[in-house]
Design a protein that fits this description.
With about 325 residues, the chain is an alpha/beta fold. The chain is about 50% helix and about 20% strand. The strands form 2 sheets. A 6-stranded parallel beta sheet has the order 2-1-3-4-5-11, sandwiched between helices. A 6-stranded mixed beta sheet has the order 7-6-8-9-10-12, with helices on both faces. Helix 2 crosses helix 11 (about 305-320), helix 5 packs parallel to helix 6 and helix 7 (about 195-205) packs across helix 8.
Amino acid sequence: MKFKLLLAATAAAGLLLAGSAIAQEKKQLAMVVNASSDFWKLAEAGIKKAQGELGDGYELQLRYPAQGTAALQNALMDDLVAGGVDAIMISSADPKNSIDAFNKIAAQVPLFTTDSDAPQSNRIAYLGSSNTLAGVQAGEEMVKAMGGKEGKCMGFVGFLDADNAKERIAGFKQAIEGKGITLVDVRGDDVDFAKARSNVDDVLVGNPEINCMVGFYSYNPPKIYESLQANGKLGQITVVAFDEDPVTLGAVKEGSFASTVVQQPFEWGYQGMKMMAAYLGGDKSMVPADKLIIVPTAVINKDNVDQFSADLKAKIASAG
C-alpha cells in the first residue's frame, strides 16, 4: 500500500512538474501604459482579441503603473523582465528621460513603443498614431469650427514634455497659423484628473478672452465638458477634442463639441501583440525600414459619430 501511494505521489509530482514546464513555455507579452485611463480599455480589448487568435501558447497582459510616472513604469518593466516576460510594448510617460532605462530593457527582451515614441532608444519599432498629423487634423477642425472668427484657444494635456503632447501641439499650431486663431497656452496636469478639471475652471475665471479649447489627451475633453457644463458655458466656447471617451462622443453628438480626432488604441493592442508574437517567432517582416508603423487617426463629427460608436462597440464585443 505504501509503495502504491508513493507511486501515486511521484506520478502527481511528475504531472505538476510537467504542467509547470508547459506554463513556463508560454510566451509572455506585455503592454505597459502611461496611466490608468479609460482610453486604455480599448487597447485591452484588442489584446483580448489577439489572445484568442494566438491561443494557449501565449500569455498576454496590459499593465498600468500605480501612477503615471516614468520611474514607476520603468520599475514595472524591470519586474516584468525579472518575472520572465518575453517582449514588452510601452507607452512612456517621459521617453526622452527614459532612454537608459529603455536600453537596459531592450538588451534583455524585444522592446516596442506605442502612443509616445522613443526613437533615440534601442526600441525595435513604434506602433501608433502620427501625433503631428493628428494635431494638424485637430487644428484644421478648429479652423472649420471657428468659421472665420478670431479665436483665442487654450489647450489642456497631461504631460507637457511627452513627445506625443509636443507633436500634437506643434501640429495644431501648424494648422491654425495665419487663420486668425492663436493657441494662447497649454495647461498640463500630469494625469491628475482633479487638476485637469481645475485647470479648465481656472481658465474660465482668469481668462475670459478664451473662446476655444482643445483637449489633447483622452480624459481632457470630458473634464472640459464637466467644467463648461457646471459653469453654464456649454455651446459658448468652441471645443475640439482628442480620442473617443464616451463623454466626448456624447458631446460631439449633441453639438457641444465641434469634433474629435480619434486614434485606434484597440488596434495598438491587437496589432502590437500579434507583431511581438511574430517577432519572437523569427518573422520580422512587420517592422519597416523606418521602424514606424502608423495607425491612421480619423475625425469624428456629428455626421459620423453614431456609426463610429457602433463600430467601437462591435470591436469591444469581438474581444469576447
